[in-house]
Recover the amino acids of this structure.
C-alpha cells in the first residue's frame, strides 16, 4: 500500500495552492470554512475536477501530472469516494449499489461481505429511500470500498446525519480504519470531527493550505484558531487513565510528559489512552503555587513563548514536561503586571471544569482497542511523525 | 373502416418512434448536460414545429425534398430515395415534426438526474457507456417512455404536414386522419365516426401511458 501525495496550484477559476501527503493507514483531515476549496481538492484527487498545475500520485503511480500532460480518468484511478449527499443510485437496492462498484467476478457476494462489514447485512434489498441517513452513509462507504481503492476520500460524510447517529458512525469509521491500510482523506468543516478521527490535519483558507502536519502540532498553533470556526487555540495532550477516585467522582489522568490532571470521573479502565484538549482560555498563570484557590489542576512549568493575539490578549506557552506544552490566554495587562518573560517559572492553573466529557476528546479507536496495550503516544510536538511516515500500528 | 389507412398510421407512428428513440436520447441527454452557448438556439429551433402552421412546415419540406432541390436530387442520385408523396418522405417529415415531443421529455428526464450520480458512477469505475446504461437510462426511463407515447399519439393525429408532403395515396401515404377527412368530404359521417373513435382511443391510451410513467418518475426523484 502506498502513500498519497498531492501538489496543486492554480489561479483560476478557484485559486488553489496545496501540498500534502497522507501515508497508508493514516487519516488526513482537510479542514476549513465552507468555500475554502476543500471539496475541490478532493474532486481533483478523484479525477472529477481539473487543476491547472497538479501532481497527484499514489506511491510511484502518478494519477495526475500536468507537466507531463497526464490526467487519468476517475475510472482509471482506484479511488473510493463518499459524497456529501452520498449520491446513492436511487433505483438500485443497497446490495446492487455496492455490487455495481465491485470489480470482482462475484460482485454480489463481495457486496454482501462489504454490507456485513458496515453492519447492514439485513438491509441489502432496501432501496436508498427506505434507509435512514446513517444507513445510507454506510451503503456509500461500502460502495466506496467495493473497488478496493488505493485511497479513500470522504466528503463531509457526517454532515447529513443527526448528532446521535454521528457518534456511532465515528466509532464505526474508527474501527473500519484499523482494517484499512490505505490513505484516507476526510473533508470536514468541523474541527471536533477532525480531532476525533484524524492523525494529520491540513487547514485550508481560500484554497490555500495555511497549516498542515500532525494533529497536535497544527492544533497548537495560535494562528489556526481563527481559521476554523468554533475552535479555540489550545493544547492537545496525550494522557493515560491512571485511577479513579470514586469518593469525589474524579479520574486521575497521567500526562505523557509527566504530571497529573484530575477530571470528572470517566468510565474508562485504567491504562486507556485518551486525548485531552485544554483551551488556552481555560488556563490561568501564577508566579507561585497558589494555596487558597479552588482550582485543583496546577502544573509547574517554564514560560517558553509569548505571542500577542490582539490588542488585549497574549498567548503564553508553558513547557510543563518534556514535549508537553500548555497554552494560556492572558491579557496584556496581566502579562505586564506579572512581568512575564521567557524562561520564567510559572504555574498553570487549569480549571478542572474545563475537562468535562465534552473536552475529553478520546479517539474512539483508542477506546475501543483499550484491551490491547495502548501505543506509546507521540510527543506533543509531533516532530517524530514526518510526512511520509506511517501511523504507529494500533 | 379503412384498415389500410389504420395500418399506415400505425406503421408511421411505430417507425417515427423507432427513429426518434436513439436520436431523442442522444440529443435530449446532450441538451440536458451541456452548457454550450448554442443550447438556447437549438432549443428554440426544436420548438418550431409546435408553433408553426403544419402547412408552412409541409410546404418547406415539399420544397426541400422535391426534385428541384439539391437535397432531393442528391438523395435520388445517391440512394434512389424519393421523399415526395412516398412513405419514406412521410416518415422523414414525421420525425422532424415530432422532435419536440420526443426531445423535450427526454431532456427534462436527464436534467433531473443529479450530476453527483454520474460522478458516483465514474468513481465506482463505470465507463460512460455503463453509466448511461446502468444509471442514467433506468432513471430517465419514465421520461423516455413519455416522449415515445407523445410521439406515437401525435403521429397518429398529424394531418397538415402529412397532407402536404404525402398527398393522399391509398396504401402509401393515406393515414387515418386523412381517411377521416376524405369520409367527411364524401358525407360518410358514420365511417368518419368509427375511425375518429379509434383515433381517440389510441391517443387516450398513449396519454395515459405518459401520465402514468410521469407519476412513476416523480416517485423515483422523490425517493432521492
Amino acid at each position: 500500500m502506498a502513500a498519497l501525495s498531492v501538489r496543486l496550484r492554480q489561479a483560476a477559476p478557484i485559486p488553489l495552492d496545496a501540498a500534502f501527503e497522507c501515508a497508508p493507514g493514516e487519516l488526513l483531515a482537510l479542514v476549513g470554512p465552507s468555500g475554502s476549496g476543500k471539496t475541490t481538492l478532493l474532486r481533483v484527487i478523484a479525477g472529477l475536477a481539473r487543476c491547472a498545475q497538479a501532481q497527484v500520485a499514489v506511491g510511484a503511480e502518478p494519477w495526475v501530472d500536468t507537466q507531463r500532460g497526464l490526467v487519468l480518468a476517475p475510472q482509471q484511478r482506484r479511488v473510493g469516494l463518499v459524497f456529501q449527499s452520498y449520491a446513492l443510485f436511487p433505483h438500485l437496492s443497497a446490495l446492487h449499489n455496492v455490487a455495481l462498484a465491485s470489480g470482482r467476478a462475484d460482485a454480489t457476494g463481495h457486496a454482501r461481505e462489504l454490507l456485513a462489514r458496515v453492519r447492514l447485512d439485513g438491509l441489502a434489498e432496501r432501496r436508498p429511500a427506505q434507509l435512514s441517513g446513517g444507513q445510507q452513509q454506510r451503503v456509500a462507504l461500502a460502495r466506496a470500498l467495493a473497488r478496493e481503492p488505493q485511497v479513500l476520500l470522504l466528503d463531509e460524510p457526517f454532515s447529513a446525519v443527526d448528532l446521535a447517529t454521528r457518534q456511532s458512525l465515528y466509532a464505526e469509521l474508527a474501527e473500519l480504519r484499523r482494517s484499512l491500510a490505505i490513505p484516507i482523506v476526510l473533508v470536514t468543516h468541523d474541527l471536533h470531527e477532525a480531532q476525533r478521527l484524524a492523525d494529520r490535519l491540513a487547514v485550508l483558507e481560500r484554497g490555500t493550505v495555511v497549516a498542515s502536519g500532525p494533529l497536535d502540532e497544527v492544533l497548537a498553533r495560535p494562528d489556526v484558531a481563527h481559521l476554523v470556526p468554533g475552535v479555540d487555540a489550545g493544547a492537545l495532550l496525550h494522557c493515560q487513565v491512571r485511577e479513579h477516585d470514586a469518593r469525589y467522582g474524579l479520574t486521575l489522568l497521567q500526562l505523557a510528559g509527566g504530571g497529573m490532571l484530575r477530571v470528572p470521573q470517566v468510565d474508562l479502565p485504567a491504562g486507556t489512552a485518551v486525548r485531552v484538549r485544554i483551551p488556552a482560555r481555560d488556563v490561568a498563570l501564577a508566579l507561585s503555587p497558589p494555596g487558597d484557590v479552588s482550582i485543583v489542576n496546577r502544573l509547574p512549568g517554564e514560560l517558553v513563548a509569548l505571542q500577542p493575539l490582539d490588542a488585549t490578549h497574549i498567548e503564553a506557552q508553558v513547557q510543563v514536561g518534556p514535549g508537553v506544552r500548555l497554552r494560556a490566554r492572558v491579557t496584556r495587562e496581566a502579562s505586564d503586571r506579572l512581568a512575564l518573560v521567557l524562561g520564567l517559572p510559572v504555574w498553570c492553573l487549569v480549571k478542572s471544569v474545563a475537562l468535562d466529557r465534552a473536552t475529553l476528546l478520546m479517539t474512539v479507536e483508542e477506546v475501543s482497542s483499550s484491551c490491547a496495550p495502548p501505543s506509546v503516544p507521540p510527543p506533543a510536538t509531533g516532530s517524530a511523525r514526518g510526512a511520509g511516515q506511517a501511523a504507529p500500528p494500533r | 373502416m379503412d384498415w389500410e389507412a389504420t395500418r399506415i398510421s400505425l406503421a408511421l407512428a411505430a417507425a417515427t418512434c423507432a427513429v426518434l428513440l436513439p436520436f431523442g436520447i442522444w440529443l435530449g441527454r446532450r441538451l440536458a448536460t451541456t452548457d454550450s452557448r448554442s443550447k438556447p438556439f437549438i432549443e428554440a429551433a426544436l420548438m418550431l414545429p409546435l408553433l408553426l402552421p403544419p402547412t408552412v412546415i409541409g410546404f418547406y419540406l415539399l420544397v426541400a425534398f422535391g426534385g428541384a432541390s439539391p437535397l432531393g436530387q442528391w438523395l435520388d442520385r445517391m440512394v434512389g430515395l424519393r421523399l415526395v408523396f412516398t412513405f419514406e418522405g412521410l416518415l422523414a417529415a414525421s420525425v422532424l415534426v415530432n422532435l419536440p415531443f420526443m426531445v423535450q421529455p427526454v431532456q427534462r428526464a436527464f436534467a433531473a438526474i443529479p450530476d453527483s450520480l454520474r460522478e458516483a458512477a465514474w468513481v465506482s469505475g463505470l465507463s460512460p457507456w455503463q453509466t448511461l446504461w446502468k444509471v442514467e437510462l433506468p432513471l430517465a426511463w419514465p421520461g423516455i417512455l413519455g416522449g415515445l407515447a407523445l410521439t406515437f399519439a401525435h403521429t397518429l393525429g398529424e394531418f397538415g404536414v402529412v397532407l402536404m408532403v404525402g398527398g393522399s395515396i391509398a396504401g402509401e401515404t393515406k393515414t387515418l386522419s386523412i381517411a377521416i377527412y376524405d369520409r367527411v368530404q364524401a358525407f360518410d359521417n358514420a365511417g368518419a365516426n368509427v375511425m375518429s373513435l379509434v383515433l381517440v382511443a389510441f391517443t387516450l391510451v398513449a396519454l395515459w401511458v405518459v401520465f402514468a410513467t410521469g407519476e412513476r418518475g416523480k416517485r423515483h426523484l422523490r425517493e432521492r
Remarks:
- Chain B touches chain A at residues 114, 116-117, 119-127, 134-135, 138-139, 220-224 (CB under 8 Å).
- Residues 166 and 173 of chain B are 5 Å apart (CA to CA).
- The radius of gyration of chain B is 20 Å.
- The longest helix of chain B spans residues 189-222.
